[in-house]
């Protein structure tokens, strides 16, 4: 009888399926589209790592660079400007297609030889040195650069060159044999990759639902389903966490941490993010063409006080546009930005400032503490005699001729000065192309030395010269590296990995686990 009962019990246990492991994440924002090639926003960057893969991967458990095989199992330079990569076999896209060299060539050339306008922007600001990718055989490709490239692996690890399926993408709209702009627009609403989670549903600006992809080539995803919902207000996210509507929430301001940590069922994790919240200034606005006005706008801002008031001292205030993650290119000795209200007053008097109003644009919720920082900056400006006004709106105004100043961010897209300052402030980069920043031949020559030299000392010297230019004619002030926090149930073991770019919601194997009690 005991054996029968035992046998029956075992049979019953086998017959009951294991409970699905699901999570709900309350996020402050959801992207309006999902395409790793065109996106470089803080919001969008959260969502690609779970679904897409790069040719060259890296160890995300360390902020030191260690390259690992990804969709390519090996790579080597066969000429100074040509890299050959051997592709991983047995890789399947979420729609069931096998990944081959054709897909890799298509994915890379859609960026290197971009015709779709959003791709052209990304190609110009970080991929301009690449000429083309070509197929050698079904599992071998070659990538051609225009000149010797000191950052080969780095630029093949970018989100923008994650691999997508050629046939699927071309068939989304129009002629299935031709890649058209409408295909890329359609792909951004129905994305397909090779990662451990497929995107089951996507509601632009509202929700992303991941489901485990059992055909993934690597370690099995630990979760069956993850739903990321937009919850724009901090209070609503915290309430959702406390009531169980959400298991993890993003973008928790420091003054809310004690409220969460005081709950025995909840906890928080946080870090100074590899990203600068910045103030940008339109050097071409008729009222701001005199650099002394912009120098004064910058010198009037007490960033240490902002840090203490808004981030409880947890943010990092830089002396220059530099981060420790840059390794040998980290340059804390540079003194590009400072607080000097007396000098600000002198410069305003020298420039003949007549009390005109300087507007400062901000979204109410996009950046943690962004509106509060803008309001505090108005008070600091007033102390030196600048009349300021905060303008709140959801529309991006960085490309508007009437822009005077606003908040923005300069993320570390990869661990190099080019991957943060460089992407944003390169000749013909986003800042110049949007009409609020100017470069000249001298700037371009310094940039060339910084970008392409293989000598670290030469790159550092050139970067210092670029920072001198920024100090003399400022278009930007890095306010701080914000201390961003996430909150979650007590039993969830998750935190942002140090090797990821900012804000990535990483739910791959090894990135999340659950306590037994």
From TrEMBL:
Domain of life, per lineage: Bacteria
Coiled-coil residue windows: none
InterPro entries noted in UniProt: Peptide/Ni-bd, SBP_5, SBP_5_dom
A biological process from GO: peptide transport
UniProt-recorded Gene Ontology molecular function terms: peptide transmembrane transporter activity
Every Solute-binding protein family domain range: 68-411
Keyword Signal: yes
Cellular compartments per GO CC: ATP-binding cassette (ABC) transporter complex; outer membrane-bounded periplasmic space
Pfam families tied to this protein: SBP_bac_5 (PF00496)
Annotated signal sequence range: 1-20
Keywords: Signal
Record localization: Periplasm
Major subcellular site: periplasm
Matching SUPFAM superfamilies: Periplasmic binding protein-like II
Family to which this protein belongs: Belongs to the bacterial solute-binding protein 5 family.
PANTHER family, A to Z: D,D-DIPEPTIDE-BINDING PERIPLASMIC PROTEIN DDPA-RELATED (PTHR30290:SF38), PERIPLASMIC BINDING COMPONENT OF ABC TRANSPORTER (PTHR30290)
Protein name: Agrocinopine ABC transporter substrate-binding protein
């Amino acid at each position: 009888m005991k054996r029968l009962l035992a046998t029956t019990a075992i049979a019953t246990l086998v017959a009951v399926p294991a409970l699905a492991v699901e999570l709900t994440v309350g996020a402050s924002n959801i992207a309006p589209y999902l395409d790793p090639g065109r996106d470089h926003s803080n919001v969008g960057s959260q969502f690609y790592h779970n679904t897409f893969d790069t040719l060259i991967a890296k160890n995300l458990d360390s902020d030191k660079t260690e390259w690992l095989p990804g969709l390519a199992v090996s790579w080597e330079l066969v000429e100074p400007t040509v890299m050959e990569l051997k592709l991983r076999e047995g890789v399947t896209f979420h729609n069931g297609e096998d990944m081959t060299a054709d897909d890799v060539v298509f994915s890379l050339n859609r960026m290197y030889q971009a015709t779709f306008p959003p791709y052209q922007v990304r190609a110009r600001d970080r991929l301009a040195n690449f000429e083309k990718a070509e197929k050698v055989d079904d599992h071998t490709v070659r990538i051609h650069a225009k000149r010797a490239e000191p950052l080969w692996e780095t630029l093949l690890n970018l989100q923008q060159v994650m691999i997508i399926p050629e046939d699927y993408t071309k068939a989304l709209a129009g002629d299935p044999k031709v890649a058209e702009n409408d295909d890329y627009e359609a792909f951004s609403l129905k994305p397909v990759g090779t990662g451990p989670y497929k995107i089951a549903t996507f509601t632009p600006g509202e929700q992303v639902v991941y489901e485990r992809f059992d055909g993934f080539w690597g370690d099995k995803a630990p979760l069956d389903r993850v739903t990321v919902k937009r919850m724009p207000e901090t209070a609503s996210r915290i309430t959702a966490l406390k009531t169980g509507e959400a298991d993890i929430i993003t973008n928790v301001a420091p003054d809310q941490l004690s409220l969460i940590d005081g709950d025995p069922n909840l906890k928080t994790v946080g870090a100074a993010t590899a990203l600068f919240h910045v103030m940008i200034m339109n050097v071409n606005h008729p009222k701001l063409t005199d650099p002394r006005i912009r120098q004064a706008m910058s010198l009037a801002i007490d960033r240490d006080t902002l840090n203490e008031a808004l981030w409880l001292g947890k943010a990092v205030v830089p002396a220059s546009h530099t981060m420790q993650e840059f390794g040998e290119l980290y340059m804390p000795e540079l003194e590009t930005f400072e607080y000097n209200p007396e000098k600000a007053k002198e410069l305003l008097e020298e420039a003949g400032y007549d009390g005109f109003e300087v507007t400062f644009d901000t979204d109410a919720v996009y950046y943690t503490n962004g509106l509060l920082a803008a309001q505090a900056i108005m008070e600091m400006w007033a102390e030196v005699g600048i009349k300021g006004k905060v303008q709140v709106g959801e529309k991006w105004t960085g490309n508007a001729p009437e822009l005077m100043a606003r908040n923005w961010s300069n993320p570390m897209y990869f661990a190099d000065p080019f991957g943060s300052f460089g992407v944003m402030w390169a000749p013909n980069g986003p800042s110049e192309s949007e009409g609020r920043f100017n470069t000249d031949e001298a700037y371009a020559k310094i940039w060339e030395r910084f970008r392409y030299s293989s000598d670290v000392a030469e790159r550092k010297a050139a970067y210092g010269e670029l920072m001198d230019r920024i100090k003399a004619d400022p278009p930007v002030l890095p306010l701080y590296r914000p201390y961003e926090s996430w909150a979650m149930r007590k039993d969830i073991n998750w935190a942002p990995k140090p090797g990821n770019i900012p804000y990535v919601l990483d739910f791959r194997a090894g990135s999340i686990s659950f306590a037994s009690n």
